[in-house]
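Please produce the structure of this protein holding magnesium ion.
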Amino acid sequence: MRYAVLVTGPAGAGKSTFSRSFITHLNASKRTGHLVNLDPAADPASFEYEPAIDIKDLINLDDAMNELGYGPNGGLVYCFEYLLENMDWLEEELGGYEDEYLIIDCPGQIELYSHHPFLPKLVQNLQRLGIRTCAVYLVESQFMEDKYKFFGGVLSAMSAMVNLEIPWINVMSKMDLVTSNPEDPSGGARNGLRRRKNIARYLDPDPLLIAIPRGDESEIPNPRFHALNQAIVQLIEEHPLVSFLPLDLTSTDSLETVISHIDYTMQYGEDEEPKEPKDLDEGDFHGME
Ligand SMILES: Nc1nc2c(ncn2[C@@H]2O[C@H](COP(=O)(O)OP(=O)(O)OP(=O)(O)O)[C@@H](O)[C@H]2O)c(=O)[nH]1
Ligand SMILES: [Mg+2]
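Below is the modeled complex.
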């Protein structure tokens, strides 16, 4: 059985960093993982090791832009369309990897997750190849500093989940940037969000955070936005699809927790042949007969 993890999320959420840490950790645990880069604009020089499979070997964003006159976003769309037309290339590249985790580092253009058909089509192709697939959606911890931005992140995660319809894990990345010590005066005083209790309201999104208008700010809330916020509150209350696992890459425990959720979601290893004690016994007694 082969397994693929799509690492998704908005620009700069830490997808590429997480993908590399994931593989480093698998390798350290005597498991194997291979990196697949699906970002045609990725700068390989900024990372310490090369992907095993790289969309840039098929098509390069610069070429699409220079030769066809696209801007960066049109170029990305072109690259993905080209990939879907050339699935035999990906199939061939994937052919050499058996019984492994494939960590697929995706680009950060948010429209890719909300309404383009590329990722659903890619997932269909992976499933056709018998590869069990799940997605990890990263939102960075800085989103918690502005509750409106944060709920924008929650809604984008929801729309991506609905678009893809595969097992799904939401992760709050870069938790090392959040002060975890509740007694730390600077952490709490800065914006009031960084205390443990408050963090919990974000990891398991509490819609009341936006139901109550900004307290200490002088602006008068626009009643139309207030009504919109109420509608969003109701949506999240009635469909609590999104909760976040915190990820602090400076802590091995934290990374392990996220990986074990991924293993569980993918039912990793459940189809592997169990080691039969019977076979061992037969071997042991073989010479005695
Ligand atoms: N403090 C902190 N910084 C991080 C962490 N992960 C990533 N970063 C930083 O965040 C920036 C973006 O990280 P990337 O891993 O390139 O993010 P990405 O989601 O792949 O970005 P795009 O591919 O451009 O969408 C870089 O400057 C990283 O060094 C983290 O866990 N903690
Ligand atoms: Mg990246």
